[in-house]
């Protein structure tokens, strides 16, 4: 090619790897870095609960009921004399696992449904969309309550319940995104190269709709923690005496004016985690999009 | 003559309801020899893109459908193949380049992975061999510093460079036919020339036959051996480049050639064909071009002109010019 020499190019720097982009995005923004640290701290707390908790979270003591914070009980005690800090540390396990697992499960199921509906269209789309419409017409909490009432309590049931409440949202977003991406010339180009339908969906559609899905997932991590708190508050979430941030708040509400410490502590923890996941979600979206990552 | 590589016979493509279909490609036939180059010209809506999409069975269904005809590739009818065998043909035997280089590459895949995908599908190479082959292809299409570019994302490339990547993807498995649907439409004129030169180069080096779809007669004249002129879904003239450009036989082709601005011409108004292209499927009788034709006679409104022979390899569908040519040759035969 003799004509190629006419071309002018910007100097070529080797394309940065995903890991480098990740590091750049995290380090470039103090808020993201801070959010990442907050999430990391909470994850560590959950993992190291047996070593960090000063007391057994279930141990009751009639001698110290509804005590305010002290050197012995940093966040005070609840109505059964249990150490609030220990209960929160152990409770972070339930809340975080729920918060991470439910949106992930919902994303897998919802995205699958949405992509199938959006890609194939026609009767498949109509059936899936009507079911999703039906589910989405219930408020998330109400849907969760209905399913929880049917399935009963228990940790894994709660995961399923919260996931089920989120599935329609993921399906909607995935369907709309798929319908848009499906029209892109690169999908047609891939078909023209001989790529089969399942591979088109896995390699060309899903990576291109991943950004909104991941953002939704991080946002709903926050919602899941909140929803678990709501369900526990209503008595169908994590069953006492097991602690979760939600039922710490519920138990604390009975004595909010006398001893607000459990509610303040658990509320603060939920706020921190929810906020951290939201900020982190924005960063993840940027990492997934090679254009903004530059 | 040996059998052609690709032979399209009486192809028809319809859109809309079966009861009242709109025919966007109507009874189109032409062929491409192995290693040959054929250009299809026509205005927007002339059916040239649908014809090319039909070859790979990429006509969007529904609402469209290929309603008739045969497409023989190497003697086998592509339209009769089961649908699940088409992916084997696509990319391996017949590849396609689209008109939108800016959006024809997946933004979240590196260009190396995208070129590699075609190879992965049709050739049995391990990942190191595949990478080597991709580097080779990048070199072939004239991308500087292939090793530094292979892991780059499409947005790091200019339009012309992306079209080169598309060409690399298309020729990755040495297809025998390369369909280029307006490959230069979205590019600057200088880049256009480079991409066309590259296509010619690929054809010479790899012996790939090229079907070039364009609305630009200049591009066709420059890079094709044969020309098919389409109008309102039909072939109106077909022949080798030389005779079409020297002696265009169809009034539409003549008008198209007249509309090309010339540097050595003093006119300040360009020639234009009066009227506009009829709506797809609106002409059911007679010649589709008659409303805009300076030569029209009564027959044109009634009977659809078949393709008359104007020379050994030159055909055109016009009653008037065919008659004139016959009269002329008769006069020459009996002086």
From TrEMBL, chain A:
Primary location group: membrane
PROSITE patterns linked: ABC_TM1
Topological relation to the membrane, as annotated: Multi-pass membrane protein
Domain ABC transmembrane type-1: 92-281
Transmembrane region(s): 31-53, 96-120, 141-166, 213-236, 261-280
Keywords: Cell membrane, Membrane, Transmembrane, Transmembrane helix, Transport
Pfam family, one: OppC_N
Subcellular location: Cell membrane
PANTHER family (alphabetical): OLIGOPEPTIDE TRANSPORT SYSTEM PERMEASE PROTEIN APPC (PTHR43386), PEPTIDE ABC TRANSPORTER PERMEASE PROTEIN (PTHR43386:SF25)
Similarity section: Belongs to the binding-protein-dependent transport system permease family.
Protein known as: ABC transporter permease
Organism: Alsobacter ponti
Automatic annotation (TrEMBL), chain B:
Every ABC transporter domain range: 6-257
Main location class: membrane
Pfam families per record: ABC_tran (PF00005), oligo_HPY (PF08352)
Coiled-coil ranges from the UniProt annotation: none
Signal peptide per UniProt: none
GO molecular function, one term: ATP binding
Topological type in the membrane: Peripheral membrane protein
Keywords for this protein: ATP-binding, Cell membrane, Membrane, Nucleotide-binding, Transport
Subcellular localization: Cell inner membrane
Protein's UniProt keywords contain Cell division: no
Keyword ATP-binding listed: yes
Superkingdom per UniProt: Bacteria
Family: Belongs to the ABC transporter superfamily.
Protein name: ABC transporter ATP-binding protein
């Amino acid at each position: 090619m003799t004509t190629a020499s006419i071309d002018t190019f910007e100097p070529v720097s080797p394309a940065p790897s995903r890991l480098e982009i990740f590091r750049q995005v995290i380090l470039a923004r103090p808020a993201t870095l801070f959010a990442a640290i907050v999430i990391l701290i909470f994850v560590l707390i959950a993992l190291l609960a047996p070593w960090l908790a000063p007391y057994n979270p279930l141990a009751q003591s009639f001698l110290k009921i509804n005590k305010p914070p002290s050197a012995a009980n940093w966040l005070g005690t609840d109505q059964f004399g249990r150490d609030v800090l220990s209960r929160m540390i152990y409770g972070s396990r339930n809340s975080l696992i729920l918060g991470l697992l439910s949106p992930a499960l919902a994303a897998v199921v919802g995205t699958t449904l949405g992509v199938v509906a959006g890609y194939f269209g026609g009767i498949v789309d109509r059936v899936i969309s009507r079911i999703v419409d039906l589910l989405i017409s219930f408020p998330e909490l109400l849907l969760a309550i209905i399913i929880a009432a049917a399935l009963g309590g228990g940790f894994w049931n709660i995961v399923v319940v919260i996931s089920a409440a989120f599935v329609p949202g993921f399906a909607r977003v995935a369907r709309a995104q798929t319908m848009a991406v499906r029209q892109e010339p690169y999908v047609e180009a891939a078909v023209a190269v001989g790529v089969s339908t399942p591979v088109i969906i896995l390699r060309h559609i899903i990576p291109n709709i991943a950004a909104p899905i991941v953002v939704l997932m991080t946002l709903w991590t926050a919602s899941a923690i909140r929803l678990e708190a709501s369900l526990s508050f209503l008595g169908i979430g994590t069953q006492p005496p097991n602690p979760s941030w939600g039922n710490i708040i519920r138990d604390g509400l009975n004595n909010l004016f006398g001893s607000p410490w459990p509610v303040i502590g658990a509320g603060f923890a939920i706020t921190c985690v929810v906020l951290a996941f939201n900020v982190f979600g924005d960063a993840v979206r940027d990492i997934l999009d090679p254009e903004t990552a530059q | 003559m040996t059998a052609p590589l690709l032979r399209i016979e009486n192809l028809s493509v319809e859109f809309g309801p079966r009861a009242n279909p709109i025919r966007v490609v109507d009874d189109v036939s032409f062929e491409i020899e192995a290693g040959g180059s054929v250009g299809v010209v026509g205005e927007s809506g002339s059916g040239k893109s649908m014809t090319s999409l039909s070859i790979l069975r990429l006509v969007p269904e529904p609402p469209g459908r290929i309603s008739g005809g045969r497409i023989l590739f190497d003697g086998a009818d592509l339209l009769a193949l089961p649908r699940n065998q088409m992916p084997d043909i696509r990319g391996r035997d017949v590849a396609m380049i689209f008109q939108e280089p800016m959006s024809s590459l997946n933004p979240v895949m590196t260009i190396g992975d995208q070129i590699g995908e075609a190879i992965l599908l049709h050739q049995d190479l391990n990942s190191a061999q595949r990478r080597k082959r991709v580097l080779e292809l990048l070199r072939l299409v004239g991308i500087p510093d292939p090793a530094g570019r292979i892991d780059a994302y499409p947005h790091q490339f200019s339009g012309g460079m992306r079209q080169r990547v598309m060409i690399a993807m298309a020729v990755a498995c040495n297809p025998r036919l390369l369909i280029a649907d307006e490959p230069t439409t979205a590019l600057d004129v200088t880049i256009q020339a480079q991409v066309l030169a590259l296509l010619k180069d690929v054809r010479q080096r790899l012996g790939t036959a090229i079907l070039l779809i364009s609305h630009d007669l200049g591009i066709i004249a420059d890079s094709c051996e044969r020309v098919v002129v389409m109008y309102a879904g039909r072939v109106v003239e077909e022949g080798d480049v030389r005779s079409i450009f020297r002696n265009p036989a169809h009034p539409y082709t003549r008008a198209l050639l007249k509309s090309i601005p010339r540097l050595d011409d003093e006119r300040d108004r360009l020639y234009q064909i009066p009227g506009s292209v009829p709506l797809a499927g609106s002409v059911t009788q007679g010649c589709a071009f008659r409303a805009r034709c300076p030569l029209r006679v009564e027959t044109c409104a009634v009977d659809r002109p078949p393709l008359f022979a104007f020379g050994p390899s030159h055909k055109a569908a016009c009653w008037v010019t065919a008659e004139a040519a016959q009269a002329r040759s008769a006069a020459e035969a009996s002086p």
